[in-house]
Structures are given as structure tokens and as C-alpha cells.
Design goal:
two-stranded antiparallel ribbon; Archaeosine Trna-guanine Transglycosylase, Chain: A, domain 4; alpha+beta
Length: about 190
């Protein structure tokens, strides 16, 4: 049996959360800043690193804080602190997104880096503990599927984020559907 690998990108919190929840609020985070470029395009998993961005995290209280001043103040959703602090969200996979392009300039208010990874079709996933790595790294799709199964979650099959309730699929059908509909770029 051949191992199927999918790409994953580790991102500091709260930015990983803001990316996978981007559809849920106006001005959602549609770009990830990096100091390196990539030619990769396609569906990737979003990994939330173990170490949060200290500008938005109170280590004393152990909670994330919505900024009230500065560049990002108006970009964070109003219920940000309440929602992110109610989730397990560091040191694992938290969602998936499509990496559409890598650009050197953008009109997105989130663009501040040397390179910007343009993102689309975000979808949060139940938290899956996983060790991150630098750059775009490979994750075994079988491990992801196994984790969903052992933790009582249906494996999400459609790009819309809707789960197909009441359908039983074999592992090969799930992998085939996930590959065709989620990971390959037309």
C-alpha cells in the first residue's frame, strides 16, 4: 500500500485560527506572510504551532487577546478572544485551505511580508495534535484519516465543509474522494 502525503504549513496562533475561520467574518485572513517563496499550489493542511505570537497572547493569563489598537485591530472579529480561547488550538492541525498563489505584493490588509501565500476555501477541522515543521511539510493522509476515525469524527469529504451524514465509506473511497475533491487543483 502506497503512502499518500499531503502538504501542511505551520502557522503561529492566532493567525492559523484567523485563516481557517476567514469565511466567518468580513476581512478574513486571506494571505499568509513568509520570507520565502513557493511554486506549490493546491490544498494544504493548516498546522497551529506550539508557540503563539506574543503580541496577541497573555502568557500570564494563558489566553489570546484581541488587539484594540494598531494595524490589525479592525481585522480581528469582535468575538475573537471568546472563540479562540474556548478551543484547543496550539500544537496541531486545525484546518485546511487552498494555496492559490505566492505573490510579492497584495492589496490584502493582511499582507506585510516579503512574500504572501494567497489562500482560499478555508475550512476548520477538529484539532489533531501533530508536530509541526518549518516550510511546507508532508503529512501522511492515512494518519489524518485514522485520527478522525478513532476520535469519533467523520472525515470531511467536500470542499463546502459539509459532512455527508449517514454515508459509510471505505478508507480507499475516503482517500479517493479527499484526493480528487480537496487536494488536486483543477
Amino acid at each position: 500500500m502506497m503512502t499518500q502525503l499531503v502538504k501542511c504549513l505551520s502557522i503561529q496562533q492566532p493567525f492559523a485560527w484567523l485563516i481557517v475561520h476567514a469565511k466567518e467574518y468580513p476581512g478574513g485572513k486571506d494571505i499568509e506572510n513568509r520570507d520565502w517563496d513557493t511554486s506549490f499550489k493546491g490544498r494544504i493542511l493548516v498546522h497551529a504551532g506550539k508557540k503563539p505570537d506574543e503580541r496577541f497572547y497573555s502568557s500570564y493569563a494563558g489566553t489570546f487577546i484581541k488587539p484594540t489598537i494598531g494595524r490589525f485591530a479592525s481585522l480581528f472579529p469582535s468575538d475573537f478572544s471568546e472563540r479562540i480561547n474556548s478551543e484547543e488550538c496550539m500544537g496541531g492541525i486545525v484546518g485546511c485551505v487552498t494555496l492559490v498563489d505566492c505573490v510579492r505584493s497584495s492589496s490584502s490588509p493582511w499582507f506585510v511580508g516579503r512574500y504572501g501565500f494567497v489562500l482560499a476555501d478555508p475550512m476548520p477541522l477538529p484539532f489533531l495534535p501533530y508536530r509541526g515543521q518549518p516550510g511546507l511539510f508532508d503529512v501522511d493522509l492515512d494518519q489524518v484519516i485514522d485520527w478522525f476515525r478513532t476520535h469519533g469524527n467523520e472525515f470531511p469529504l467536500r470542499t463546502t465543509g459539509k459532512r455527508q451524514a449517514g454515508t459509510t465509506k471505505t478508507e480507499s473511497q475516503i482517500k479517493s474522494t479527499w484526493t480528487q475533491e480537496r487536494w488536486e487543483v483543477a
